[in-house]
Amino acid sequence: MTDAAIEAVLRRDRLIVAAALALMIALAWAYVWWLATDMDMGGMDMSGFRMIPAGRGWMMPTAAPWTAMEFGFVFAMWAVMMIGMMTPSATPMVLVYARLGRQAARHGKSLPASAYFAAGYLVTWVGFALAATVAQWAMERSALLTPTMEGASDIFSGVVLIAAGIYQVLTALLFVGGVMNVLWIAAIAMLVLAEKVIPAGRAISRTAGAALVAAGVWLLAQAL
After folding, report:
1. Which among 82, 81, 83 has a CA at the least distance from the CA of 20?
2. Could you point out which of 36, 97, 134, 215 has its C-alpha 20 to 30 Å from the C-alpha of 147?
3. Do 199 and 137 share a structural domain?
4. Do residues 111 and 6 both lie within one domain?
5. What pTM was estimated for this model as a whole?
6. Last residue of a domain, which of 117, 143, 169?
7. For residues 183 and 118, is the Cβ–Cβ distance under 8 A?
């Protein structure tokens, strides 16, 4: 195979990687939007019940323990949501890896497929999704979340905001604004993307962290 043919094949491989990532992002956001639409009760009084993110309008009494099925639906929600939020910010690195693979192949060397590199991100996000599911279960059992999965008090929300600002765990903000609040999900995704791809990303991260801490302190001051 000539050098030109090899270059064409490898360039096509990079396009395939980009297309696969774009499709994964689109499917993840479509799923999140579907769940959010299903869980929008339009101001209906949800006292005594909690929503199950199954896309079927299912509810359970607040006092009822979680079932394995509910845990699975919540875990799936978090896993897909993490993929939708984080894949855009990881895409540049995956494409860089694909380019390195192309350059290595040109010199007769080989790197593991880009899919393996991307899988490392996916495993991390799925692991976080599992931790978030357990955290949501614990918060609901402790009455720290409302039936619509929002922070139930200013004290709780203030503590979460401060922790998120200090430790830069931005996805924790969903426990304040609502786990299925699409606007919050989109805002977090855009902030993470800006931190990764904009040259002033570190400054953006620090500014956002300081703003979150300030907002958390303000909420605590209002509540105490």
Report:
1. 83
2. 215
3. no
4. yes
5. 0.86
6. 143
7. no
Close Cβ partners of 18 (under 8 Å, ≥ 6 residues apart): 91, 95
Q: Cα–Cα–Cα angle for 166, 168, 170, nearest 5°?
A: 125
115 and 197 housed in the same domain: no
**What's the domain range around 191?**
150-224
CA distance 83 to 121: 9
Residues 164 and 133 in one domain: no
Print pLDDT tens along the chain (224 aa).
Answer: 455 555 555 567 778 888 889 999 999 999 999 998 888 765 566 677 888 888 877 888 888 899 999 999 999 999 999 999 999 999 989 888 887 877 776 767 777 777 788 899 999 999 999 999 999 999 998 989 988 788 999 999 999 999 999 998 999 999 999 898 899 999 999 999 999 888 888 899 999 999 999 999 999 999 88
The verdict on 19 and 126 lying in the same domain is yes
